[in-house]
Design brief:
The chain is an alpha+beta fold. The chain has helices spanning about 15-25, 50-60; strands spanning about 1-10, 30-35, 40-45, 65-75. A four-stranded antiparallel beta sheet has the order 2-3-1-4. The protein is globular.
Length: about 80
Amino acid sequence: MVNAIVLLKVERERAREVAELLVAIEGVDEVLTVAGQYDMVAILKAKDDDQFAEIVTEGMLEIEGIKASETLIAIKHYKGT
């Protein structure tokens, strides 16, 4: 499994549309609006590298309103009880 966090800067007037389009993509688990340097965070959970690449290249990159992004790939997952 490939887990990733994608930090997004989006056009303010398209934020809701962008969020709705993102969560409709298979493999995008959650989308959060946030305060700070970025406007949104997308949590990706892909079954493998191929699905991860598809989420990004055929899904996220096609969405108008995303101005910039930074992707953080999880190396190890720690979970509380």
